[in-house]
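Incident log, support desk, overnight shift.

02:14 A customer reports that sequence design results differ from what the structure should imply. Their input is reproduced verbatim below. On-call engineer (initials T.W.) acknowledged and began investigating.
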């Protein structure tokens, strides 16, 4: 009697186990299908939604940020299961993300794993002064302005360039950055870029230039940048200045005088300004000013290094950004009367 009963119990147990296995397999299949459907289903959120993932955020905090961004998709357990399947739980990168319309949860996670964050642009404009650069940084709504409390000397020390004048030391280009980036970091990149561009220009310079160092080349390039209204004239303007330096003539260029006036300049350059001596007044002093007066671009650096040959020593603006170049002072005076004095 005992053996048949044991066999019956054993068969019942096997049947129950088989049912549990079938049920488990069914549940696993159902869960897998539901996870696959969740992974591919477009998330629902506001158009143009962005997600900011702080550094060191936990997965729970990231999910809370998703909800805060207006994203409604699935349960937290589904997000965690999907992140585990994608091996994303500990690989999500900090940053600001644009959530594309109709993106799936899996696409959102992969975006964060790959660190495809929103990038912003900051353009340093050719001819800007440090004052204009600082004002542009202060206006930028995303870039962290960590230089506002630093004067130029402290800024350059912060960038590892103590004793180097800040004016002209940042290469005009468009730089990409992400939310949370500091202005000092961006300027460090711009200073490194200027170092490389200046070294290239100095290495490729014309023989016999009256320029003794890369720093003097930078100063000359900054003057060329401020005097140039049409890009194609840079080499010719450079040629005029180089010939004047060779002959010992004063450069007599208005932008240096204006720079020396600083905030006192009211937009109207007067004769008394030209006659008032400052370290930057090239009407009263020979040679180059002590520092650059603006940020020169690559083209201005190249023009300073390889000026256009010729015999012109003067130029005057036509009023449309272009210039008339003259060989003699008499020719120059005639051009001034025509274009600056209305023929008088």
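02:41 Re-run completed on a clean worker. Output:
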């Amino acid at each position: 009697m005992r053996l048949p009963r044991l066999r019956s119990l054993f068969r019942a147990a096997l049947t129950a186990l088989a049912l549990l296995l079938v049920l488990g397999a069914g549940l696993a299949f159902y869960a897998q299908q539901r996870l696959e459907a969740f992974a591919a289903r477009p998330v629902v959120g506001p158009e143009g939604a962005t997600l900011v993932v702080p550094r060191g955020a936990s997965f729970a905090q990231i999910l809370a940020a998703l909800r805060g961004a207006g994203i409604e998709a699935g349960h937290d357990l589904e997000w965690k299961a999907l992140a585990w399947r994608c091996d994303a739980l500990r690989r999500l990168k900090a940053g600001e993300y644009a959530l594309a319309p109709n993106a799936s949860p899996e696409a959102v996670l992969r975006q964060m794993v790959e660190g495809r964050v929103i990038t912003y642009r900051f353009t340093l404009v050719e001819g800007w002064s440090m004052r204009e650069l600082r004002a542009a940084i202060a206006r930028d709504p995303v870039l962290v302005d960590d230089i506002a409390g630093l004067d130029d000397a402290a800024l350059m020390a912060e960038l590892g360039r103590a004793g180097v004048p800040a004016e002209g030391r940042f290469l005009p280009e468009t730089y990409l950055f992400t939310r949370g980036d500091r202005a000092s970091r961006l300027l460090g990149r711009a200073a490194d870029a200027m170092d490389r561009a200046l070294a290239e220009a100095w290495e490729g310079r014309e023989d016999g230039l009256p320029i003794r160092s890369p720093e003097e080349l930078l100063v000359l390039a900054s003057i060329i940048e401020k005097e140039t209204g049409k890009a194609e004239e840079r080499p010719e303007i450079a040629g005029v200045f180089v010939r004047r330096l060779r002959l010992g003539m004063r450069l007599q260029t208005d932008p240096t005088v204006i720079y020396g006036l600083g905030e006192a300049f009211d937009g109207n350059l007067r004769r008394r300004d030209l006659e008032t001596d400052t370290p930057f007044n090239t009407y009263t002093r020979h040679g180059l000013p002590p520092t650059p007066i603006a940020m020169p671009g690559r083209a201005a650096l190249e023009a300073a290094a390889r000026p256009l040959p010729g015999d012109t020593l003067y130029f005057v603006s036509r009023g449309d950004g272009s210039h008339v170049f003259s060989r003699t002072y008499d020719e120059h005076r005639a051009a001034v009367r025509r274009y600056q004095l209305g023929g008088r």
